[in-house]
Specification:
The complex is a heterodimer of chains A (171) and B (215).
Chain A (H helix, E strand, L loop, with lengths): L1 H67 L8 H6 L5 E2 H9 L12 E10 L6 E6 L6 E14 L2 E14 L3
Chain B lengths: L1 H30 L6 H14 L12 H10 L12 H6 L10 H17 L4 E14 L2 E6 L7 E5 L1 H6 L9 H12 L4 E9 L7 E9 L2
Antiparallel strand pairs in B: 1-2, 1-3, 1-5, 4-5
Helix pairs in contact in B: 2-5
The chains are: A alpha+beta (171), B alpha+beta (215).
């Protein structure tokens, strides 16, 4: 009698163990899957932030070229006949920064400060502020070297300057 | 019994394959990250493009590019477009120490600003090379603009010159180039910019500028 009933109960126990094993494997797989998913989403989020930062940087680089190409401050076509590289006309810049630039508020977007600093020759260092807006957020800077030239009868004479843009940071 | 063991082995193999796939995916993502070099190169090239149109006060309105073209056309020293001969004005005298040329002065004045504005705080040395490609028989050779005695303009900041145990006079261009060649190249990271200066009826003058930085 005992033998007859013990066999199915042993079988049942073994099946239970099998089911338990399967459950454990499934739980382990789910944990592994969720870990992988967490890692992947974290990576994607990081990439997303990085891409956003890169796009913002690219936009600022484009904006750097846009500023240097503004007809209000760039060198005239007589300079471009001798050199295709961009250049800023110092006389135009002086007028722009003294009062004319105020009517250009809308074009600056998320830029909080734009200025041109003369670096060389060292005895004529000077700073021209194109735009300045107070901000409570942090900002990142991006810059490019640019010739700052003055037109004389005999042609253009250029100094070495740095165009600096400060952009509101994302965070 | 044999079948069960086989099943166990298959299960183990499947687990291994899953772990392997996950590992490959993770490594793949890590390797996919792009190096960020382009923006930095653009800035070095911008600096070069700005330097070549600079008009030194002592040169009757001539720009650096006019002096470079003059050196190319009137080898080896150029003519007197400035108060002295173009080559000496630009690169200083290679024989005596402590005689900076205009290019070294410009670099000294702008390197700090480059370092702070580009995000490379640890820039401590630079190297500029001016050359043009010349046809020699069937092949093209690179010829240095300032001749073989002054092939490059180099500078290593004084602290690094001492700490890297470079020998010679730290104010002399050739000893700085020596220091760069022996103790810096290949050991420190660098960023590079490049520009070409067109010359009418001649080969373009190629200019490269490399900054070395300590990360």
């Amino acid at each position: 009698m005992v033998r007859i009933y013990s066999i199915p109960s042993l079988k049942r126990k073994r099946s239970q163990i099998k089911i338990q094993e399967m459950a454990f494997v499934l739980v382990a797989l789910i944990i592994l899957g969720s870990l992988v998913f967490m890692f992947y989403s974290r990576l994607q989020y990081g990439n997303l932030l990085k891409n956003a930062e890169e796009i913002r940087k690219e936009n600022t680089i484009t904006f750097l070229s846009r500023v240097t190409a503004m007809p209000e401050i760039r060198c005239s076509s007589s300079y471009e006949q001798t050199d295709e590289r961009p250049c800023i006309d110092e006389d135009k810049l002086q007028i722009f920064t003294s009062n004319y630039g105020r009517s250009y508020k809308k074009i600056w977007g998320n830029i909080v400060n734009a200025k041109i600093v003369v670096l060389y020759p060292e005895d004529s260092t000077q700073e021209y502020v194109l735009f300045d807006r107070p901000t409570t957020k942090g900002y990142d800077g991006l810059s490019t070297f640019i010739p700052l030239c003055k037109q004389y009868y005999e042609g253009y004479k250029c100094k070495i300057a740095l165009l600096i843009l400060r952009v509101e940071s994302l965070s | 019994m044999k079948k069960k063991a086989q099943e166990e082995i298959v299960g183990f193999a499947i687990v291994l394959v899953i772990i392997l796939i996950v590992g490959v995916v993770i490594i793949g993502f890590m390797l996919r990250q792009k190096p960020e070099v382009e923006q930095k190169n653009r800035q070095v090239s911008d600096l070069l493009n700005t330097i070549i149109v600079y008009s030194p006060g002592q040169c009757n309105g001539n720009q650096i590019k006019d002096l470079l073209i003059d050196v190319m056309k009137n080898k080896p020293d150029g003519s007197e477009l400035c108060v002295i001969k173009s080559k000496e004005f630009l690169a200083g005298s290679s024989s005596s120490s402590n005689s900076e040329g205009e290019l070294q002065k410009i670099m000294r004045a702008t390197m700090g600003d480059f370092s702070s504005s580009s995000g490379y705080a640890g820039i401590f040395a630079y190297e500029i090379v001016f050359y043009y490609e010349k046809e020699s028989g069937a092949e093209t050779v690179e010829e240095y603009l300032f001749g073989s005695t002054l092939p490059k303009i180099c500078s290593v900041s004084s602290d690094y010159f001492d700490s890297l145990q470079c020998s010679g006079d730290k104010t002399k261009n050739s000893d700085n180039c020596d220091c760069l060649e022996k103790n810096i190249k290949g050991k420190f990271k660098s960023i590079m910019g490049y520009t070409a200066l067109p010359v009418i009826n001649r080969e373009d003058i190629q200019i490269s500028l490399r900054f070395y930085y300590d990360s």
